[in-house]
Amino acid sequence: MYRPFSLFVSLRYLRVQRRNRFISVISLISILGIAIGVAALITVLSVMNGFDHELRKRIVGMTAEVTVTGFGGSLSDWRRVAHQAHRIPGVTGMAPVVTGQAMLASDGNLSGARIVGIEPGPEARVLDLTKKLIAGRLVSLMGPHWDIVLGRDLAYTLGVTVGNHVVLMVPEGLVTPAGLVPRVRRFRVSGIFDAGDYAFDNGLAFIGLKKAQRLFGLGTHVSALELHLDHMLLAPSVARTLVNRLHGNDYVSDWISQNRSLFQAIATEKRVMFLILLLIVAVAAFNIISTLVMVVNEKAADIAILRTLGASPGTIVRIFILQGALIGLLGTAVGLGLGILLAQNVQPVMQFIREIFHVNLFPTKVYFINRLPSRLEGRQILEITLIAFGLTVLSTLYPAWRASRVRPIEALRHE
């Protein structure tokens, strides 16, 4: 008996016949179950990969890879720090900034915001702010006027657009006989940006560096020095090098440590989702056990005849392993194709669901992004395919072993 014979018999047993339509239906259910499980795994993990990648890109696009701040909230000798940072390989840009919290008001609308004072020229080498402007110009912050650039959602909350005015109030005010009076300044909106991240678009505003120094009372000091690197994954090593060169006199942080809890939560959620969705594949794969057991019971006489014709127990084992493996291979292939198709078209699918059922499954205020990203990873797809197929092959071992234990004399006695 040659192995093509085992494959031939396996394919014959998979064909729909009048006597075993029920078994064929169960086989079809197993194929569909495996396909749905594999497709769900690929789609969900691709969306989570895309969410992780998009979040990292947007955080780095609006946050410096490495930030140096003074322990008292003021960095007095920032030029010395810049000189030390410039000598570190991988640092391609740097910019001083002044940061603080303030309240913005316009026509009765109020909103808190993080105010960042920048110099547009150096800042352009650190952040992608110029590319994110949807109205106005960033260079307006260098002019003599008190101009401000707002996030899109913040401008919407305040009800303003380019050319309108807002009132900015800083909590750290002046001490007068009447008490503490906050600093108040009227700004003209000269630009609006769209970072694609609700946290930035709703809570961030930019003004000129010198005006921020005056507003927050820092004089010639700055709040921090931001560094841009040629590769964002170099941030931890550059931060450690800079800490050693500054001898611990200033606080150095990188974008990974600043958002460590967020990315750890995403990684944990990804692992949990993988295990949960893998249960769908496992249930469908173990359903193959019941299918093959029923085939063994129905084909007991056929097995006995094969044994009397010279088929060895190993040949019988191969027949039923191949039958289960073919079911698993077909289900995995269908799920693989369906999963890749869904992952590449997840945004149109979500748009269709939103229009038909009038429900937003991913609100911007909760998930920080205005679209559902997807990112396929070849290694991950290979792992899902191998695990799904491995579970189906594993499910065939017991029925195949049971088929090989059929005794020809006892099986033919009842025919």
Structural notes for this entry:
- This protein has 415 residues and is of the alpha+beta class.
- The protein has 2 domains: 3-57 and 262-413, no CATH class; 71-249, no CATH class.
- The protein has 18 helices and 10 strands.
- It has helices at residues 3-14, 21-62, 78-86, 120-123, 129-132, 152-158, 198-203, 209-215, 235-246, 255-258, 260-298, 300-308, 313-344, 346-357, 364-367, 378-395, 397-404, 408-413, and strands spanning 66-69, 91-106, 109-118, 133-136, 147-151, 165-176, 179-193, 204-208, 224-229, 251-254.
- A 6-stranded mixed barrel has the order 2-3-8-5-7-6.
- β2 (91-106) and β3 (109-118) form a beta hairpin.
- α13 (313-344) packs antiparallel against α17.
- The two termini are 25 Å apart.
- The model has no long low-confidence stretch (mean pLDDT 82).
